[in-house]
Design brief:
The protein has five helices and twelve strands. By secondary structure, it is an alpha+beta fold. The chain has two domains: 105 residues, f41 fragment of flagellin, N-terminal domain, CATH 1.20.1330; 156 residues, no CATH class. The chain is globular.
Length: 290
């Protein structure tokens, strides 16, 4: 068991060394924003890898470095009265998938009803691009947002308009989610693009694209369950023949995931998770990460 834990921690230690190197490089004033962005992308990927290792390092089902998890979507939210009732095929949304189980299993309890994602589709300006944004909430607090330009999916003039019977997949990898969309999604993009002052935006329209669905209160889906193992505070082993404290070995377990690393003994510093998706995207933030 200790060898398994040590192997996981050794790998995480190597990752942290690389992340510090990236932070030092990104703090240089000689880099362009584009160059620093490449470093930031690798930094965020390495942080996610730490969470994957922490949640998957276990011994006979006992978590050793972090919480594991088996997270599911609350598909009841897609029902007629659910919180995600506008995220349905008539508006272009066929299916959803969790692609990063470890991210969504990050939680302080096993009740994941305070974990959710919210979808909005907005025309940035009249005649401008149409942007789809997904925002995640963990423990009831907005955690991350990722945006994708979906203008090309428009039914009118879109270079990748989805034909009847066709599908496309939209990957929001920073949030561990993917969306399967159908030809109605292209019609939805047209509807958003035809609006003025955001009146047709998904997440605003009370009768989105004539579907009768209120997208302003029907664009949120919660997580249903976390069946994974939580990290125990300690593990006790019987090492002697008697029944005294000297006959037992107690090993304390501490989490080494991105939510904990960097936070300091009293939690007074930013953890790796708190640094967010733009952890080292500027020289100042990179210096802070160092």
């Amino acid at each position: 068991m200790l060898q398994i834990a040590d192997g996981g921690m050794a790998t995480i230690d190597n990752i942290l060394v690389r992340m510090k190197t990236l932070s030092v490089q990104a703090s240089s004033g000689n880099l362009s924003d584009t160059e620093r962005g490449f470093l930031n992308d690798e930094f965020v990927q390495l942080r996610d890898e730490i969470d994957r290792i922490a949640s998957s390092t276990n011994f006979n089902g006992i978590q050793l470095l972090g919480d594991g998890g088996d997270v599911a979507l609350e598909f009841g939210d897609l029902a007629a009265t659910g919180g995600g009732r506008a995220l349905v095929p008539v508006n272009g949304f066929d299916n959803f998938a969790i692609t990063d189980n470890n991210y969504w299993a990050t939680d302080t309890d096993t009740d994941l009803t305070d974990n959710s994602f919210e979808v909005s589709i907005n025309e940035i300006s009249a005649g401008g691009p149409v942007i789809m944004t997904v925002t995640s909430t963990i423990d009831g607090v907005a955690d991350r947002s990722q945006s994708i330009d979906v203008s090309d999916y428009a039914a009118t003039g879109g270079t990748t308009a989805i034909p009847a019977g066709g599908n496309a997949t939209l990957d929001f990898d920073e949030l561990g989610l993917s969306f399967s969309v159908n030809t109605n999604f292209s019609a939805s993009i047209d509807f958003v693009a035809a609006g003025t002052a955001g009146s047709n935006d998904f997440g605003t329209s009370t009768n989105f694209n004539g579907s009768g669905l209120d997208s302003s209160i029907g664009n949120v889906v919660t997580m249903a369950s976390d069946n994974g193992q939580a990290l125990q505070s300690s593990i006790e082993f019987q090492v002697g023949a008697g029944n005294t404290a000297n006959d037992r070995l107690d090993i304390t377990l501490n989490s080494v995931d991105s939510e904990t690393l960097g936070a300091g003994a009293l939690g007074t510093q930013d953890s790796l998770q708190t640094l967010g998706a733009n952890a080292i995207s500027t020289a100042a933030s990179a210096q802070s990460a160092v």
